Amino acid sequence: MVNLKMDTQLRHVVCIKFRDGVATRDKDRVEEEFCALVEKIPQVLDLEWGTNISTEQLEKGLTHCFILTFADEAARDTYLVHPVHQEFVGFLKRFVDDVLVLDFWKKSALAPDGTPTV
Questions:
Q1: Within 13 Å, how many C-alpha atoms sit on residue 23's CB side?
Q2: Which pLDDT tens digit goes with each residue over 44-57?
Q3: Residue 73 — φ and ψ, nearest 5°?
Q4: Strands (DSSP E) along 1-118, which ranges?
Q5: Which of 20, 34, 56, 111 has the highest CB neighbour count under 10 A?
Q6: Could you tell me if residue 60 is left (phi over 0), alpha (psi between -120 and 50 degrees) or otherwise beta?
Q7: How many CA atoms within 13 Å lie on the side-chain side of 89?
Q8: What are 6-21's pLDDT values in tens digits?
Q9: How far does Cα 35 stand from its chain's mean position?
């Protein structure tokens, strides 16, 4: 069994499939509004994002991935009901066909110095 180092950060992953015909400017606006959440909601410790570049063709139409970092479940739960987040969700629904959300506690196979933890 692999012994992975547990971290104390909760990751909240949001993958988006846009509706057919959504303009590039609207996708750009979604990206901007999503990234702005980190400045507006203090429980968000970090936000990383990008667009799919996989050659495996397993994305099922999901094109954008956003990964938010929280200190714990309470911070995540506060974020989920935060009025700014709720407003963003309403805005987002106009453009998306599907959304995949996963939460997990970060585990790392490497120590901070880069050496394996296994």
A1: 3
A2: 999 999 999 999 99
A3: -65, -35
A4: 5-18, 46-51, 64-70, 96-108
A5: 34
A6: left
A7: 11
A8: 567 999 999 999 999 9
A9: 10
